[in-house]
Amino acid sequence: MSVFESRRTALVHDWLTGMRGGEKVLEALATLVPEAPIYTLLHVPGSVAPELEAHAIHSSWIARLPAARRGYRRYLPLFPSAIEDFDLNGFDLVLSTSHCVAKGVIPPPGALHICYCHSPMRYAWDQEHVYFPRRHGPAARLRNLLLSSLRTWDAASADRVDLFIANSRFVAERIRRYYRRQAEVIPPPVAVEAFAAKPSHGTFSYEERSEPVVRAAERCLMVAALAPYKRIEVAIAACRRLGLGLDIVGTGPELRRLKRQTGEGVAILGRVEHQRLVQLYRRAFCLLQPGVEDFGIAAVEALASGTPVVALGHGGVLDIVDDGVHGVLYGRGEPRASLAEADFEEDVTQLEQAIERCRAQTFDHRQLEERAERFSTARFLTRMRARIEQALAERTMV
Hints:
By secondary structure, the chain is α/β, with parallel strands linked by helices. It has two domains: 9-189 and 376-397, Rossmann fold (3-Layer(aba) Sandwich), CATH 3.40.50; 192-373, Rossmann fold. It is 36% helix and 15% strand. Strands 3-2-1-4-5-6-7 form a seven-stranded parallel beta sheet, sandwiched between helices. It has a six-stranded parallel beta sheet with strand order 11-10-9-12-13-14, with helices on both faces. Helix 8 (232-242) links the parallel strand 9 and strand 10 (245-249). The chain is globular and about 60 Å long. Residues 199-217 have low confidence and may be disordered.
């Protein structure tokens, strides 16, 4: 009998409304504990992988509030209370995957709580002014009070976690800074084999791809949630100035605003089927990441596809891309929180220069593929299983 079979395990996740990076981590963890129920603030049936839908899923009372499916984010101040309302008595292992409040669930006495942390809440901590640029007026003052209360709860509830596992060194540092806790780093799982390109030779330039690609014009690619911190408007402006096409895969709250900025050659595609995504990676000459990524699963998928990455040289991408080897990193150092016009112009110019540098280089496909292999699902599961078993053994010895 494996160590997992002898434990009654609960999985806890923020919300289940689509298959993004966090849900792919949950999907992988769920294979280790196939009988474990999932506790989440909100579940939209059919929105996640069948492997997750097959689990018993328990939603919080947030799901019963008006217009919760589409507008659940408006209930953010209620999230801490909702996650604490779950009764986990009877479980002796709690595995949470958290970028919001899941790590604040209250484990039963004696249970081991391991949190795979994608990031402390960005909008409550260091990216408040990116998400909420309006800083004046009664509404802004009320928001500041609510976020202050949320930060207090977020820091205090970190003590409910026995072991933090971060998805990158960048997130581990944020956990140390805001929670005063140490975190081990295990990169998230990426289905690299599903994107792997098969070149006929070891190196390629943009005119020499492993498969013939017919393009009317050179195109860049972004695969990202349509959220403010992704800085998608920077990519749109840079590509338009360079006369390059840009395909944007993703959905999110910024969709309406970003559509007003698109013009000829820029396409917001929303969610796409896997095979279409593979084709988009392979026809793009680079993937763009102008925002600070906690990790950057899309960067790994791009490398597995034989496509280099052009990214802001800060955050989780530093665990993935070596400048000049797997793509181009630019603007190293602390990122700007300000979205002032002058800063925006400088960001666009830096990205333009980085794209031009990428176009002038030739990349070794084998090096891209080998780097992507470091982040395979198999490696993730091996490392997570070993670390959970170690933590359980240490708890037994105490």
